[in-house]
Amino acid sequence: MHKKDERIERLEKWGRGIPQPPTTIELVPTDKCNFNCGSCWRQGISEEDLEKKYNMEIGDERLLKLVDEAHEIGVLEFAFVGGGEPLCRDITYRLMKKIRKYGMEGDLVTNGSLLTEEMMETLVEVGWTRIKFSIDGSDEKLQDELRGIKCYKNILENIKTLNRLKKEKKKDFPKIGFNTVISNKNYKDLPNIIGLAHEIGCNEILILPLTIFSDEGKKLKLDHEQMVEFQGIIKECLPKLKKYNIFSNLEEFMDLRYVDKTNSMHEVLMEEAEKVKGDFKTVPCFEPWKHITIIANGNIACCFNDYVWNTTVTIKDRTLKELWYGPEFEKYREQVLTRKLPEACATCCVWRVFETKGIREKLNL
Q1: Is the dihedral of CA 235, 236, 237, 242 positive or negative?
Q2: With contact defined as beta carbons under 8 Å apart, do 104 and 81 qualify?
Q3: Bigger pLDDT: 365 vs 131
């Protein structure tokens, strides 16, 4: 059975009252980063508080054991995200190899600067599923400005090396994608970013609208006039994506809620849930039944929002199985079943909203 079908099948069983394992673990291995992006949550944190976070990071051996536990209970995929830059921590590379040894899928979101040829050769050999590079500008000046460091040439060189290694070894994986955060600095550059993706062999461009975490982030958000202009740019870009056979979520942003309401996504989740009938299908979010987020200090919850940042629930002293089937996750599920989302869901990643819509359409309940 295809992995995507298995994800839906597990949710259908949950909907019938039959508990199932999580499908995905989203892991933040570290809050450290070698970049200084203006849109990042780190802009709103003092150096002193960042140092405290670094000192609380969970140990290497617990993370290695976590992969064992994930395999044992039937997790299908690991996704490495920030936090910081996942490859700022050496253990990430070891975890990736172990994940593939067990046959689980793997997704890495990276700024791309710390990948070595040796790493990339190994990831091609083991068939790592996907690497998404953070690209916000089609040229050196814009990319370096938005990422707060000189990085453009290095990242592109690494992507070219990865494609060369895939070709030499006659491998289709890892699939290569761009993660592009849309701001008032780069929304007009999107056609050129698509052109760059085609030029260097990128299979996917995922657009992420700006969520405001700091005053610096506020300066980058599109105003209403720019949002309307962005819709016209999307229309210009869609034929190009089709021509180049690049998958993208770009068309979704013709609905301006997904650009404008990035700090009130819980309202959008509720609006979408109200469009359907049924019991389980009408829950505004399916994350508590399929997904786990673990951040660098070991905190664990069903998603990447204030739940996980503020919880006292941790993997440091309990197993993954105990936590997933235990009272804390059951409490998350009960809360979402009431269809009253907490304020913490306001900053839900828009990709999760798209995913939830897609799941709801496929559920046979």
Answers
A1: positive
A2: no
A3: 131
* Angstrom distance (rounded) from CA 151 to CA 167: 25
Contact 182, 222 (CB under 8 A): yes
Token pair 């949950």: residue: 14
Cα 233 to Cα 107, 223, 239, 252, 255: the distances in Å are 29, 15, 11, 13, 13
The pLDDT of residue 148 is 86
- Both tokens of residue 335? 């809360």
Backbone phi, psi, residue 165, to 5°: -65, -40
* pTM value > 0.90: yes
Structure tokens at 73: 């209970």
The amino acid sitting at 130 is R
pLDDT of amino acid 4: 56
- Residue 5's pLDDT band, with cuts at 50, 70 and 90, is confident
Tell me the per-residue pLDDT of 232-252, one tens digit each, with 9 for 90 and over.
Answer: 999 999 999 999 999 999 999
Return the C-alpha torsion angle 215, 141, 230, 285, nearest 10: -60
Contact 7, 290 (CB under 8 A): yes
CA angle 166, 5, 336 (to 5 degrees): 115
Those residues whose C-beta lies under 8 Å from the C-beta of residue 214, and which sit 6 or more positions away, are 41, 43, 44
Residue whose pair of structure tokens reads 């993997």 in the numeric block:
315
Residue found under tokens 């979408």: 272
User: Which tens digits make up the pLDDT trace of 202-220?
Assistant: 999 999 988 777 777 788 9
